[in-house]
Amino acid sequence: MSDASIPGGKAPVAGETRQPERFFFERFGLDERAVEAALGSALARRADFADLYFEFRAADSVSLEEGLVKKANHSISQGVGVRVLAGEKTGYAYSDEVTVERLQIAARHARAIASSEAGADAIAVRAPSARPERDLYPVASAELERPLPERVELLRRIDAAARAVDPRIVNVFASVGTEEKLVLVANSAGELVADVQPLLRVNVTCIAEDGGKRQQGTAGGGGRVAFSFLVDGSERALAFARDAARQALVNLEAVDAPAGQMVVVLGPGWPGVLLHEAIGHGLEGDFNRKGTSAFAKLMGERVASELCTVVDDGTIASRRGSLNVDDEGIPTRRNVLIEKGRLVGYLQDRLNARLMGVAPTGNGRRESFMHYPLPRMTNTFMLAGEDAPEDVIRSVDRGLYAVSFGGGQVDITNGKFVFSASEAYLIEGGRVGRPVKGATLIGNGPDVLTRITRVASDLKLDDGIGTCGKDGQSVPVGVGLPTIRIDGITVGGTRA
Questions:
Q1: Between helices 236-252 and 148-165, what is the axis angle to 10°?
Q2: Where are the domains of the chain?
């Protein structure tokens, strides 16, 4: 929506966004008493817990296709969500008009949804805001924003860089987007915390054509970083363009992938998305509390090769999946989930942590003020091992080397997954050979973990492109992986 359509709405002035608690109170005419009154209304029927989540979001995006800029968007949204927890019940209501009256209405609606006779009704909201003790992404608004002509010029340079790789690159799709989100969380435990969350992302897709054959390649990246991340001395944006063109050309030369069970080597970085989907979701608290995860009731048990240690870490500076505090106001942290093959932790939000009798882990995340938080991943990856990556490949006589993935599906209840490789090669006699197309990996997450026999020392995090979906909500995430060898995974292809 446009700025003019927002009640009382104008964009924050320079410097204002670095004081988000003041910004929210002044923008909406609120104070600590109004917040406390809303929480009191939410808890009037003796619920266990209540919180308010205020959000202001400004986003810009520009996209290019066929050498022309065809779309440019600027949007501003704002609102507040009120959550009430009573036993296992969650009541949630929100409003995109933030006034004292609307806040009270949302609080009463959330309370009615979660109505309960059990719980405590004591509240105390401390006036001083608890600012995060750290700042993982100290990016000022001016460092994120860029005039439209400068963004357009960057897209044109991306287009030129991709086409310059090879005349067979016949089309380029590119986009660059920035977002600055301000959040303020107040709750019935007496906590008041605010944060400013920048986000930058560039995407490039190239189409290569030769002799009637067409293939595509994709690349991109970003993080909670300034715009200069794309255009500094390394010129990352142009590097992404060249990489997308390279992948499209590789796929143009690819032969049909073989089918059958074989050894698979996953490359470092983005292939960690398989770990995220096939294993990570199964380690989220809600699925394990309800007993629907393949990992439910396995705490302390061996669930993977002893070479595997899997971590979710929301504290890595500038990463796409990192946060100073999660969307419940809890500081993020480094959570070890699997340690040397043994399951040692789940990812928790407040609700599921309380019901399971453990502490929250800083993984309560939501898409926006219109959504209640769920236990979600941040940056999820496997720790490096001791092997040299070339030795891992050299150890395979015949197999598949998967460098990048496209789409995939997973069933949380049993861990079964299907993933499509967007760039893959045959391994023949310990060497990387011909590129292949149409390869899909079919397996079971918990089973795959036990089949990992080599882990290299080249841990890499992805370039900053991950978005995770769950229950209709999407949030930015990161993934990572060192080169690993998996013995005996089913590869779906087009030839036996």
A1: 40
A2: 3-252, 256-492
Burial of 429 (0-12, 13-18, 19+ CB in 10 A): exposed
pLDDT tens digits for range 256-284: 999 999 999 999 999 999 999 889 999 99
CA 46 to chain centroid: 35
Given CATH 3.30.450.40, say whether it is the number of domain 3-252: no
Dist. CA 97–CA 90, nearest whole Å: 22
Residue with tokens 């023949």, as numbered in its chain: 428
- The residue type at 43: L
Over residues 83-122, the pLDDT tens digits come to 999 999 999 999 999 999 999 999 999 999 998 654 444 4
Q: Residue 92: exposed, middle, or buried by beta-carbon count in 10 A (0-12, 13-18, 19+)?
A: buried
